[in-house]
From TrEMBL, chain A:
Subunit structure: The complex is composed of two ATP-binding proteins (PotA), two transmembrane proteins (PotB and PotC) and a solute-binding protein (PotD).
Catalytic activity reported: ATP + H2O + polyamine-[polyamine-binding protein]Side 1 = ADP + phosphate + polyamineSide 2 + [polyamine-binding protein]Side 1
Domain ABC transporter: 24-254
UniProt-listed Pfam families: ABC_tran, TOBE_2
Superkingdom: Bacteria
PROSITE patterns, per database record: ABC_TRANSPORTER_1, ABC_TRANSPORTER_2
Similarity comment text for this entry: Belongs to the ABC transporter superfamily. Spermidine/putrescine importer (TC 3.A.1.11.1) family.
EC number: 7.6.2.11
Name of the protein in its database record: Spermidine/putrescine import ATP-binding protein PotA
Provenance organism: Azospirillum isscasi
UniProtKB/TrEMBL annotation, chain B:
UniProt subcellular location: Cell membrane
Ranges for domain ABC transmembrane type-1: 60-258
Keyword Transport: yes
Superkingdom per UniProt: Bacteria
Protein name: ABC transporter permease subunit
Annotated Pfam families: BPD_transp_1
Membrane topology of this protein: Multi-pass membrane protein
Classification via InterPro entries: Bact_Polyamine_Transport, MetI-like, MetI-like_sf
Family the entry assigns: Belongs to the binding-protein-dependent transport system permease family. CysTW subfamily.
Major location (coarse): membrane
Record's keyword terms, sorted: Cell membrane, Membrane, Transmembrane, Transmembrane helix, Transport
């Protein structure tokens, strides 16, 4: 599924600017619990004002990494710097960091207002200012009229917003959010995603957000780090991660993808040609890859980049064109998903926007169709 | 139907087993006759006599004082022990400590009493404290054995308490001591109260340990009752027992009333939250 990022790209992103110093620097951090390696030599640089997403399956070490940033766990090896200061030995209550917990961790014996005010009280902020800032923050998350309630009197989504308000009210330089939108239904979730991005841009806070929802990571973040078994598989902008995955894991984890195995037969500066038994055709890709000729590689092609037609496509030279029979069609409203069985036996997934009404659709079950894609569509994966 | 009938009988029998002795005790506290087994008509004379019996009242007062003090002390110590067991991870000797805290629960009271007596005697010889045996030694002895119960209660409450609450407080800038008093303590307060009540009750009806560590002139109520049994029980004791039961029952009644009201309030609030969306 193609997802549009919410944020507008700025001209020069900080991670491309060599003059910028990272706000958070994680250097070869490893965390082991007994024999188990939860986080494995992770290195990351995160810049001021970024909305950085940690994406990964369950148990991939996302929460553990956040807890090390917040100071609840000590790295077994490696160093963490925040704003240039080595965080080793600095307790959680002295770090310029606030965290929103996966379980919200609202204080059950305090009202919404008291929960939000707690952090300011610890800093000895004057009473009048506390009241003012808490009120403003509750208005921001639209909980003004629930100020006097206790957490158990709130719905899941409301609790989540209290937790968010509580972690934001101290205006931390760095905010860690562990699955901030997990408990919300789809509509509220999308709405809150926009809100979060707005809040983040308005307050200029650096966000590190943990999620296992790839769509959420794609829409909200400036950059994404994909984690797998404690290791960072790839770091990049949502577009980079989606369009140029560097490994099979990343390609398969983000969105859906068709994988073709093949052998490199031509390897030029401006293109490669891969002979694929899987696809039943040669795959032509208009960028170079640094692999030896004859090497076996995988080529990833996103379902929405494949065109379906009943007639053989024009200028077909036998490259990036193959044929098959439509086996399944799933109608999703805006798009349809076609599962096409190739002559080679492989099943390929194709998504196409529904430009005409369903009843008028030209391609139906058991039709023989041609699948074709452009030279830029395929991505060669060597790992 | 046959089965139901039998079950109902079993139930009645069970309750009778529990409550008939108590009912008899209350009944005979209003007996005119001195003999426990003979009903001599209704009278409140034993209550009047009780109020003039300084020995019995003194023992009751001592017992209450000891119970209150040792319950308070064991709540403080038990909370600290429970906290260490539940929170400080895998420190050295944790398993040993965990096992040892529960040992007094299964230790025969005779042994606890005897060992404490030996300790007090040795201490008095060595440093001159405690000076003789009396209220202080009974309180200390009761604290040692009730503390184990409190520690177990607090520990199990803390284990079920989400640790991220404490972490969140720390994350928001509270130091560990502050976190304990502002977050942990209020949340585990009900467990502390029930721990205190349990310790109070245990102390109030202990006779074995108290017999070992009490001295002349400091006799707790259970000790007085126990020793007077040898000369035939005076109905005054029935009267005293009835009074104590009334006090305890009232306490329990009020507590459950308050709890029920809180529960209702909570339910109403939750419904409001659901409707409020
Ligand atoms: N205190 C701990 N002791 C032992 N193992 C732990 C501890 N904390 C985490 N782990 C293990 O480390 C691994 C990573 O856990 P972590 O909580 O970081 O995963 P996660 O990526 O946040 O997963 P999820 O998406 O399910 O929240 C898991 O396999 C977990 O079992
Ligand atoms: Mg997690």
């Amino acid at each position: 599924m193609a997802v549009q990022p919410i944020r507008k790209p700025t001209r020069l992103e900080p991670w491309q600017d060599p003059g910028q110093k990272p706000y958070v620097r994680i250097e070869k951090v490893t965390k082991t619990f007994g024999d188990f390696v939860a986080v494995d030599e992770v290195s990351l640089s995160i810049y001021r004002g970024e909305f950085f997403a940690l994406l990964g399956g369950s148990g991939s070490g996302k929460t553990t990494l956040l807890r090390m940033l917040a100071g609840f766990e000590t790295p077994t090896e490696g160093k963490i710097f925040i704003d240039g200061v080595d965080m080793a030995g600095i307790p959680p209550y002295e770090r310029p960091v606030n965290m929103m917990f996966q379980s919200y961790a609202l204080f059950p014996h305090m009202s919404v207002e008291q929960n939000v005010a707690f952090g300011l009280k610890q800093d000895g902020v004057a009473k009048a200012e506390i009241a003012e800032r808490v009120g403003a923050m509750l208005d921001l998350v639209q909980l003004g009229k629930f100020a006097k309630r206790k957490p158990h009197q709130l719905s899941g989504g409301q609790r989540q917003r209290v937790a968010l308000a509580r972690s934001l009210v101290k205006r931390p330089k760095l905010l860690l959010l562990d699955e901030p939108l997990g408990a919300l239904d789809k509509r509220l979730r999308e709405q809150t995603q926009f809100e979060l991005v707005n809040i983040q841009e308005k307050l200029g806070v650096t966000f590190i957000v943990v999620t296992h929802d790839q769509e959420e990571a794609m829409t909200m973040s400036s950059r994404i780090a994909v984690m797998n078994h404690g290791v960072i598989a790839q770091t990049g902008t949502p577009t980079e991660i989606y369009e140029y995955p560097q490994s099979r894991f990343v390609a398969e984890f983000i969105g859906s993808v068709n994988m073709f195995e093949g052998r490199v037969v031509e390897d030029q500066a401006d293109h490669v040609l891969i002979r694929s038994e899987d696809a039943g055709c040669d795959l032509y890709i208009n960028h170079a890859v640094s692999v030896p000729s004859n090497a076996t590689v995988a080529v990833a092609v996103r379902p929405e980049k494949i065109a379906l037609s009943k007639e053989p496509p024009a200028n077909a030279d036998g490259r990036n064109v193959t044929g098959g029979i439509v086996r399944e069609i799933a109608y999703l409203g805006d798009v349809s998903i076609y599962l096409v069985e190739l002559k080679t036996g492989k099943t390929v997934r194709v998504t196409a926007p529904n430009v005409v009404r369903r009843t008028e659709m030209p391609i139906t079950w058991d039709d023989e169709v041609y699948l074709s894609w452009r030279p830029f569509a395929g991505v060669v994966l060597t790992q | 139907m046959m089965r139901m009938g039998k079950l109902a009988w079993a139930l009645w029998f069970g309750y009778a087993f529990l409550y008939v002795p108590i009912a008899l005790l209350i009944l005979y506290s209003f007996n005119e006759s001195r003999l426990v087994t003979v009903w001599g008509g209704f009278s409140t004379k034993w209550y009047t006599e009780l109020l003039q019996n300084d020995q019995l009242l003194g023992a009751a007062w001592l017992s209450l004082q000891v119970a209150a003090m040792s319950a308070t002390a064991s709540v403080v110590l038990g909370t600290v022990a429970g906290l260490a067991l539940a929170r400080f991870g895998r420190f050295r000797g944790r398993t040993l400590f965990g096992g040892m805290i529960t040992a007094p629960l299964v230790m025969p009271e005779v042994i606890t009493g005897l060992s404490l007596l030996l300790l007090f005697v040795a201490l008095e010889q060595a440093i001159g404290w405690p000076d003789g045996r009396g209220m202080t030694t009974i309180t200390i002895a009761h604290t040692t054995f009730t503390m184990a119960y409190v520690a177990v209660i607090i520990q199990s409450r803390l284990v079920s308490l989400d640790e991220s609450l404490e972490e969140a407080a720390m994350d928001l800038g509270a130091r560990p001591a502050k976190v304990f008093f502002v977050i942990t303590l209020p949340i585990i307060a009900p467990a502390i109260v029930s721990g205190w009540l349990l310790a109070f009750t245990l102390s109030l009806d202990d006779v074995v340990v108290a017999s070992f560590v009490s001295g002349p002139g400091s006799t707790t109520l259970p000790m007085v009752i126990f020793s007077s049994v040898k000369f035939g029980i005076s109905p005054q004791i029935n009267a005293l027992a009835t009074l104590m039961m009334v006090v305890v029952a009232t306490g329990i009644f009020i507590a459950s009333l308050v709890m029920a009201r809180q529960e209702r309030q909570k339910k109403r609030d939750e419904q409001m939250a659901v409707q409020g969306g």
